UniProtKB/TrEMBL annotation:
Gene name per UniProt: kynU
Entry function: Catalyzes the cleavage of L-kynurenine (L-Kyn) and L-3-hydroxykynurenine (L-3OHKyn) into anthranilic acid (AA) and 3-hydroxyanthranilic acid (3-OHAA), respectively.
One of the Pfam families matching this protein, by short name: KYNU_C
Source organism per UniProt: Jeotgalibacillus salarius
KW Transcription (keyword) present: no
Full protein name: Kynureninase
Family membership: Belongs to the kynureninase family.
Length: 425
């Protein structure tokens, strides 16, 4: 694909875009180019209305809201799990909206990490997000082991991506559970989930994935691929708001397995209010809930999922790939001369929803971009992440934003900003 990188082309792409009308569903600040949807998605009008609707149900029903209204709170997690399932290729019974990504990971590890014999290790990767590693270390310690010995990490030769061969190195007969991200947060590399799962299963290893940087941007087939479990947050491409409730997937072949962390809302709903001290496990993924659902942190997802149902994850992926290719090609043509290096893999099969750029002055460049209305994402020590969101990023946005970035690099205006991260990068 060859881009011209002119305004006429951008306008033409926008006219051809089947998803262009969804932009009007979101609150977009005038004069701003928002390219940080992989950290926090923007607010949609439907998500806003969903929050207001549940506030109204609280006002009108009081405690009866648990069973009354358009979205009864008691089964809200299950109903939204049903609607999330198609986005990741799962059965409705395999998905639940609940907790946070780290809480859900603790639940899955408590359930699946059962050291026995020489299978006492957890395998991960050295490029993973810190919170996942913290959870793995904690679970190993809770079993009485030393994380320095029992947590093994696939090493990356280039420091930004992983090869299947590098992952293979940690798939030993001492490993009980493998946890990997679907998309590496620093580079935007999409890992071959199906192939990794197959290889791990052949060696008797249970497999889990962190979908934080792929759900809502990349379609998956978790049930067909026989992934054992997955966890995710919903505030990135899913546009569920800051700290919004997360989700988990557990393959139906494991349904009935006792949750490692039993909780009130993991009970069989028909018996939950019997108030018995004997835990009666709920059905499917719902059994792995822990506490009472946070209704107002879940509410925005009602509206967000309506938009996903209308747009379709395949069409969103198609536009995302086209827009990230636009950025990648612009970097190769116009920015490489300024020392900007693209570290995201080039093929569609290996690319998630964002483009990662490496530069020694990445922090100051991000600050210069923000001063000009572009919202990027900085990751220490030297990564700039740009994530167009298929729902609301127009091609004219991309054209204008990339022209500004080129100007910043040409004029070296970024040098007037400190090359240190802010408290929140």
């Amino acid at each position: 694909m060859s881009f011209k990188f002119d305004l006429e082309e951008a306008v033409r792409f926008d006219k051809m875009d089947e998803l262009a009308s969804f932009r009007d569903e979101f609150y977009i600040k005038e004069g701003q180019y928002y390219l940080d949807g992989n950290s926090l998605g923007l607010l949609s009008k439907k998500a806003e209305q969903a929050v207001m609707d549940l506030l109204t149900s609280w006002r009108d029903y009081g405690i009866e809201g648990w069973m009354e209204g358009d979205h009864p709170w008691f089964t809200l997690s299950e109903s939204l799990g049903d609607k999330t399932a198609p986005l990741i290729g799962a059965k409705a019974s395999e998905v639940i909206v609940t907790g946070s990504i780290t809480v859900n990971l603790h639940q899955m590890l408590s359930t699946f990490y059962k050291p026995e014999g020489k299978r006492t290790k957890i395998a991960a990767d050295e490029l993973n997000f810190p919170s996942d590693i913290y959870a793995l270390q904690s679970q190993i310690e809770l079993k009485g082991f030393n994380p320095d010995e029992q947590l093994i990490k696939a090493e990356s030769v280039n420091g930004t991506t992983l090869t299947i061969e590098e992952i293979d190195q940690v798939l030993t007969d001492e490993v009980a559970v493998l946890l990997l991200p679907s998309v590496l947060y620093r580079s935007g590399q999409l890992l071959p989930i199906k192939e990794i799962t197959k290889r791990a299963h052949e060696k008797g290893i249970l497999v889990g994935f962190d979908l934080a940087h792929s759900i809502g941007a990349v379609p998956h087939e978790l049930h067909e691929w026989e992934v054992d479990f997955a966890v995710w947050c919903n505030y990135k491409y899913m546009n569920n708001g800051p700290g919004g409730s997360g989700g988990l997937f557990i393959h139906e072949k494991h349904h009935g397995k006792l949750p490692g962390l039993k909780g009130w809302f993991g009970s069989d709903k028909n018996k939950q209010f019997d108030m018995a001290h004997t835990f009666t496990q709920g059905d499917g993924a719902g059994a792995y809930q822990i506490g009472t659902p946070n209704i107002f942190s879940t509410a925005p997802l009602i509206g967000s999922l309506e938009l996903f149902e209308k747009a379709g994850i395949e069409k969103l992926r198609e536009k995302s790939l086209h827009q990230t290719q636009y950025i990648a090609d612009f970097v190769e043509k116009e920015l490489i001369q300024f020392g900007m290096k693209k570290v995201t893999p080039s093929t569609d099969e290996e690319r998630g929803g964002h483009i990662a750029l490496q530069h020694d002055s990445a922090a100051s460049i991000c600050k210069a971009m923000k001063a000009r209305g572009i919202i990027p994402d900085f990751r220490a020590p030297d990564i700039i992440r740009l994530a167009p969101a298929a729902f609301y990023t127009s091609y004219q946005d991309l054209y204008e934003a990339m022209q500004i970035v080129k100007e910043i690099m040409e004029t070296e205006t970024y040098q007037s900003f400190s090359n240190e991260r802010n408290v929140i990068a």
